[in-house]
């Protein structure tokens, strides 16, 4: 079945017109106007290339980021771009060139300890795609839609081809109105893509099918195949894979071919996105099983990957998932493994409040329930995708990179030198949000040294990943950590809940030094406050209750002078600089374990200090020592006794390294 052939028993002329456009003649820069001239087209192409270069440069990708990007998308950059743009291979000098001479910049603060190891290059010939849901495009003006499409074509130039699902939120009870709206919006998207050159866009309106609702096998297939809970699946796979192999952007209306009625029906856009994700991942479709045969684990344990889905992108007027803290905009990063249940519960609780005035009139269930559906969509799709995949939920203005034109104000937490970064391009090149999720929301930089502090515009983009489980001892669900009474039972590193060998390996690998385990165990025996572990000991923190030098434990406890101290903060080398492991651990420490503040020390020449500095409330270089002291306690610098206790602890904690030749950490 061809993807250009209409299968409906009552085809609409609107759909036929759209299909004719997909195979129509386009020039190097899209459909040519009868009044256009070669010089005007050349000027438009130069301007497009210039904006593309600026977007890549503003991503602030580090050399490590560029290397990881090239290893993933390098094989997709030849023969698929219209402008010849895209990252190049490392130069003879070893410097990575991102795009036409633009080099990676090394000054973005990241948690990286010691020398960086270059991973072995991997070549992947399968097309890399992003499944993009455009929510309510009928509410976007042409300029906004054009800006969003421009970004998607830039992603294509960078090796990531989009499969666009158009979601109009039109009342599906009126079939004619729905079909007319979908045809109109699909046409708008096609025309916008056509303005940015070849490869062309292709409409795939006959690839999604709906299984027979009376079939018991289709219901059982839902958990093991590409069939959604509503029975949708990809019935014509070649209509997707063939154009993707040629670099075409696909536009998919949310409708499905019903096997029972032999007609086209409306489909939920989220079901279409999930069906596409599961099909691309290689999960089987119903036709692969004999009628009435129940699928077994052996039938599905060797999926054939058709393309690589690297991103799920939701472009929604409501933007990202709201932060649980009032006034903080969207949640910057979501570790779905750990945070999904809490965020969903918070959104459902807020959905009980009357928010009709702030929710779009055609959004069913109100604003908060709409966010819940977006959250559930990214969770369900990422669950069946590789662990390297991620999801981005953003607003059309953010995706179009219009924020710099709307206001001169900075986003909270943005570094002054980064202007107008496109969250989608930045995420593709760095696999991170525009700024770190562990960066305090109140850290605001003025536009210039002489400008006044501006009220920040809160972020509207959320990055979600499958993430890592987080283990915290003692459990913070009962509340933040408090010092135990002297002589009371307390956590110890020898407890069965802690895998001590793996913890020691984590510390040794992170610091590239060997821990003196016996000395360290003796030192923290009676001062351990708690431990935070990310994933399978991929990152972690050990925190203690320290008392000022010379003060006994009873006095320190009774006078409230026990100091919360970050003794070890470690991330495996393979997880440093990417993946958000350091952010996950740091957030758990400052938001859950010690929300009232914690202090720590670091060598003055430690390359991680810039990362620490951005997340602390203050820093002080300790005179006549090699230490810099950091703290997250609000207003600590105004409390002279507290600062003396912090400094006393940071000066007197004994290092516990088997290697005594290097400077202590």
UniProtKB/TrEMBL annotation:
Gene3D superfamilies membership: 3.40.630.30
GO molecular function: L-glutamate N-acetyltransferase activity
Keywords, in A-Z order: Acyltransferase, Amino-acid biosynthesis, Mitochondrion, Transferase, Transit peptide
One of the record's GO cellular component terms: mitochondrial matrix
Signal peptide extent: none
Associated pathway: Amino-acid biosynthesis; L-arginine biosynthesis; N(2)-acetyl-L-ornithine from L-glutamate: step 1/4
Region (Disordered), start-end ranges: 1-48
Annotated function: N-acetylglutamate synthase involved in arginine biosynthesis.
Name of the protein: Amino-acid acetyltransferase, mitochondrial
Organism: Podospora appendiculata
């Amino acid at each position: 079945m061809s993807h250009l052939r209409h299968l409906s028993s009552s085809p609409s002329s609107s759909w036929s017109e759209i299909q004719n456009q997909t195979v129509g003649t386009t020039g190097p820069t899209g459909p040519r106007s009868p009044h256009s001239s070669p010089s005007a087209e050349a000027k438009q192409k130069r301007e497009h290339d210039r904006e593309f270069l600026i977007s890549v440069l503003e991503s602030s990708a580090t050399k490590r980021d560029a290397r990881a990007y090239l290893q993933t998308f390098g094989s997709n950059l030849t023969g698929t771009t219209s402008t010849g743009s895209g990252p190049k291979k490392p130069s003879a000098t070893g410097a990575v060139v991102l795009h036409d001479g633009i080099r990676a910049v090394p000054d973005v603060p990241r948690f990286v300890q010691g020398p960086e190891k270059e991973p072995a290059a991997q070549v992947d010939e399968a097309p890399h795609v992003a499944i993009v849901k455009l929510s309510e495009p009928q509410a976007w003006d042409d300029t906004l839609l054009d800006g969003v499409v421009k970004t998607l074509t830039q992603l294509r130039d960078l090796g990531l081809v989009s499969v666009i699902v158009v979601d109009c939120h039109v009342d599906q009870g009126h079939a004619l109105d729905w079909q007319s709206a979908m045809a109109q919006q699909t046409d708008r998207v096609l025309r916008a893509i056509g303005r940015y050159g070849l490869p062309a866009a292709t409409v795939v309106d006959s690839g999604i099918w709906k299984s027979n609702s009376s079939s018991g096998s289709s219901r059982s297939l839902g958990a093991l195949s590409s069939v959604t809970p509503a029975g949708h699946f990809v019935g014509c796979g070649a209509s997707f894979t063939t154009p993707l192999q040629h670099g075409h952007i696909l536009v998919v209306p949310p409708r499905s071919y019903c096997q029972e009625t032999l007609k086209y029906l409306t489909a939920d856009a989220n079901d279409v996105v999930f069906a596409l994700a599961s099909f691309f991942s290689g999960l089987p479709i119903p036709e692969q099983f004999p009628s009435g045969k129940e699928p077994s684990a052996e039938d599905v344990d060797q999926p054939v990957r058709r393309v690589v889905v690297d991103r799920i992108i939701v472009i929604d007027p409501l933007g990202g998932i709201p932060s649980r803290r009032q006034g903080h905009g969207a949640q910057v990063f979501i570790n779905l493994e750990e945070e999904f249940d809490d965020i969903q519960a918070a959104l459902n609780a807020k959905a009980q409040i009357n928010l009709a005035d702030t929710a779009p009139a055609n959004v069913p269930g109100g604003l908060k329930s709409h966010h819940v559906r977006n959250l559930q969509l990214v969770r369900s799709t990422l669950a069946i995708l590789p662990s390297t995949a991620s999801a981005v939920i953003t607003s059309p203005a953010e995706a179009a990179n219009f924020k710099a034109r709307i206001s001169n104000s900075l986003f909270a937490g943005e570094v002054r030198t980064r202007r107008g970064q496109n969250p989608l391009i930045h995420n593709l090149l760095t696999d991170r949000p525009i700024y770190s999720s562990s960066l305090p929301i109140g850290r605001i930089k003025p536009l210039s040294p002489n400008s006044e502090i501006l009220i920040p515009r809160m972020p509207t983009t959320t990055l979600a990943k499958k993430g890592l489980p987080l283990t915290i001892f003692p459990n913070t669900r009962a509340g933040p950590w408090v010092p135990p009474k002297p002589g009371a039972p307390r956590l110890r590193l020898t407890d069965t809940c802690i895998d001590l060998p793996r913890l020691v390996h984590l510390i040794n690998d992170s610091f590239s030094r060997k821990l003196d385990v016996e000395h360290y165990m003796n030192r923290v025996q009676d001062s351990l406050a708690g431990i935070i572990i990310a994933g399978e000991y991929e990152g972690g923190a050990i925190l203690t209750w320290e008392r000022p030098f010379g003060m006994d434990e009873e006095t320190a406890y009774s006078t409230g002078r026990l100091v919360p101290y970050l003794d070890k903060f470690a991330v495996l080398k393979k997880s440093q600089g990417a993946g958000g492991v350091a952010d996950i651990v740091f957030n758990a420490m400052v938001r859950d374990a010690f929300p009232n503040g914690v202090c720590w020390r670091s060598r003055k020449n430690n390359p991680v200090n810039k990362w620490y500095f951005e997340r602390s409330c203050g820093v002080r270089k300790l005179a006549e020592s090699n230490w810099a002291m950091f703290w997250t306690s609000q207003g600590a610098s105004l409390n002279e006794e507290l600062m003396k206790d912090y400094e006393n602890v940071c000066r007197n904690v004994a290092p516990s390294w088997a290697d005594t030749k290097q400077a202590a950490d």
